[in-house]
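> example.struct
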């Protein structure tokens, strides 16, 4: 750590920041320095009138000053300080990595990012989606670029269907009788008909003297040197096979980027093997079609009965429609968050899938997901998971309140009314935070202010319980019933039989800060 550092034309001063060392220089590129969230820094920017770092705009300390107070709040990951004067950029600026004090070193920050990414990739592939199901969002046109997380999800969900369809196509490929004609030497002609005779008569330029041949007696001593021969043969170069080849090549090209993702090596070996097995089947089938002379697709045979009815082909046509039309914008946004290392936003998306996963495991009911996308937050208003016969988890809903309007991160509905509120908080503090209130936990604990907010939720929204989930190590529930009962789990709370407020530690599964 340093008290001052200079990068490009900017000088930054403060008590807690540093430069990257060793391999971190490459891993965090193009960031030149790391700083902490919720910490004041002073930046000298000669000639600048404003300092921008999306979504923040920092004014000078006073009019005409060239020193700026910089403080990042609710912003983690990659950022860029850019000085402006007269509305135009001044100089190259300074690339930064904003860390959380909860994970205070670049190594810890990167480990948490990998853990969240791996967990999110696994959880998002747990639940199916399809173009006609509530979990998909239709699009009139295909998106040209798909996120690696979407591709992982698609291959894991549809891998068995893809490999089975490819096996059927190789075993029973669609063929058609190809008819064509070619100009052959007279000695190679194997059959002749009326069309052959007409071709000979209409092309005397091919005649040559050949008095020894029987045909020359009819042609005044001449015979055709070449004759147009009509032929037919079985071929795999059909519109349907061209479609299959185009789809398989599109999939393999798109999926080729998976192994280059930073989170690929963190995936369980079984999932890596599944993806590689699917890709091997795709390549084997596409190579088979190329060897059989199948050419590039020109027109999509949308009305083909083969694509509608034949085994293997109808599956690939259905999956092609799903791949081209279905989108999983939450995964696209998650990929964006991964690219800029926005851990707080990833934790919010991860917590949704984790809550759904816990409910799915406890209730043994496959959820019906309705995913809504926000271009700024990832999760969109109205995102929900419905568990038939039990309840519905809804994101960012605003039920009636007898006081000020309140909007918890998640509401659990039972019988059409909200019963439990859950807030996902990517923040916690040291073990001494709640000692004044008689709590003496070990490790990292929740913030008391967040617990006060749960009291407000429970009272104003007339709920049974309100809890926070956070990536710490201490869980505590304040039960309104007698204290003789054992501490509840989060699922106990969501079942609605434990009234009160509390906090539940829900860190990503892999690794520690």
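> example.seq
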């Amino acid at each position: 750590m340093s008290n001052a550092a200079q990068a490009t034309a900017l000088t930054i001063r403060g008590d807690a920041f540093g430069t990257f060392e060793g391999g971190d220089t490459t891993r965090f590129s193009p960031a030149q320095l790391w700083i902490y969230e919720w910490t004041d820094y002073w930046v000298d920017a000669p000639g600048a009138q404003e300092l921008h770092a999306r979504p923040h705009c920092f004014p000078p300390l006073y009019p005409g000053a060239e020193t700026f107070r910089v403080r990042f709040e609710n912003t983690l990951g990659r950022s860029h300080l850019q000085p402006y004067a007269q509305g135009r950029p001044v100089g190259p600026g300074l690339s930064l990595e904003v860390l959380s004090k909860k994970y205070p070193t670049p190594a810890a920050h990167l480990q948490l990012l990998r853990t969240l990414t791996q967990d999110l990739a696994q959880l998002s592939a747990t639940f199916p989606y399809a173009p006609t199901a509530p979990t998909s969002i239709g699009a009139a046109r295909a998106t040209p670029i798909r996120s690696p997380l979407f591709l992982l999800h698609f291959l894991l969900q549809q891998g068995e269907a893809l490999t089975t369809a490819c096996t059927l196509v190789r075993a029973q490929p669609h063929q058609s009788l190809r008819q064509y004609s070619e100009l052959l030497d007279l000695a190679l002609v194997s059959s002749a008909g009326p069309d052959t005779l007409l071709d000979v008569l209409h092309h005397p330029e091919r005649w040559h003297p050949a008095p020894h041949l029987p045909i020359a007696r009819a042609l005044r001593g001449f015979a055709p040197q070449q004759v147009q021969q009509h032929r037919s043969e079985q071929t795999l170069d059909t519109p349907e096979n061209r479609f299959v080849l185009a789809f398989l090549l599109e999939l393999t090209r798109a999926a080729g980027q998976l192994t280059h993702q930073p989170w690929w090596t963190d995936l369980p070996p079984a999932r890596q093997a599944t993806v590689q097995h699917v890709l091997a089947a795709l390549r084997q089938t596409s190579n088979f079609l190329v060897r059989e002379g199948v050419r590039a697709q020109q027109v999509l045979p949308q009305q083909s009965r083969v694509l509608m009815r034949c085994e293997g082909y109808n599956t690939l046509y259905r999956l092609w429609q799903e791949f081209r039309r279905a989108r999983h914008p939450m995964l696209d946004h998650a990929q964006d968050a991964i690219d800029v290392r926005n851990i707080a936003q990833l934790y919010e998306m991860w917590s949704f899938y984790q809550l759904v996963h816990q409910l799915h495991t406890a209730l043994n009911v496959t959820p019906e997901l309705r995913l809504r996308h926000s271009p700024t937050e990832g999760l969109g208003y109205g995102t929900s998971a419905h568990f038939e016969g039990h309840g519905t988890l809804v994101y960012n809903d605003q039920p009636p309140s007898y006081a000020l309007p309140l909007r918890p991160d998640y509401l659990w509905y039972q019988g059409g009314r909200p019963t439990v509120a859950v807030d996902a908080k990517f923040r916690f503090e040291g073990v001494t935070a709640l000692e004044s209130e008689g709590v003496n936990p070990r490790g990292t604990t929740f913030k008391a202010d967040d617990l006060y907010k749960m009291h407000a939720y429970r009272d104003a929204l007339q709920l049974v319980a309100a809890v926070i989930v956070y990536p710490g190590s201490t869980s505590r529930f304040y039960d309104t019933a007698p204290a003789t009962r054992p501490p509840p789990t989060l699922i106990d709370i969501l079942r609605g039989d434990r009234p009160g407020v509390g906090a539940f530690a829900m860190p990503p599964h892999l690794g520690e800060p």
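> remarks
Confidence is low (pLDDT under 50) at residues 129-145, 430-443.
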